[in-house]
Amino acid sequence: MLVTLETAAASAPRVWILEPDSSLRELVSQQLSTRGYEVRGFTDASETLDALESSEPPALLILEPILPFGDGMQVVQRMRGGPRTLSVPILVLTMDTSRDRRIEAIRLHVDYVQKPVTLAEVCRKVAKLCGRPVPADLE
Fold this sequence. Notes:
With 139 residues, the protein is of the alpha/beta class. It contains six helices and five strands. The longest helix is centred in the N-terminal third of the chain and has 13 residues, at 22-34. It is globular and about 35 Å long. The chain has a five-stranded parallel β-sheet, with helices on both faces. 43% of the residues lie in helices and 17% in strands. It has a single domain (13-127), classed as Response regulator (Rossmann fold, 3-Layer(aba) Sandwich), CATH 3.40.50.2300.
């Protein structure tokens, strides 16, 4: 089978990252892009919610629930309440160590990873959540 740029882009899982820290967002985006993911970054909840309304949902959403404007968990709640986004896997990457936040994440059926976290760990989680094999360099 001949793989063109168009077919490669069409088969690339779309990953959205809602992260207010631009350095971390760019670092994760670059790492995932080099591993064949189509990545789109967001800085606030309203921007992400607007994108959910106006475009095809991602294969995976990575988010930090603690945002300067809005609450990342509002995005999760909206996704879990909509038929188009109900089954989209969500990976919460956060500095929040509160018991309540963890319970909320479990209740909403999301994966929860506490920062600091390595890029390798993020890439392993993303591969698993997108149904891709974990690359050998990450095992």
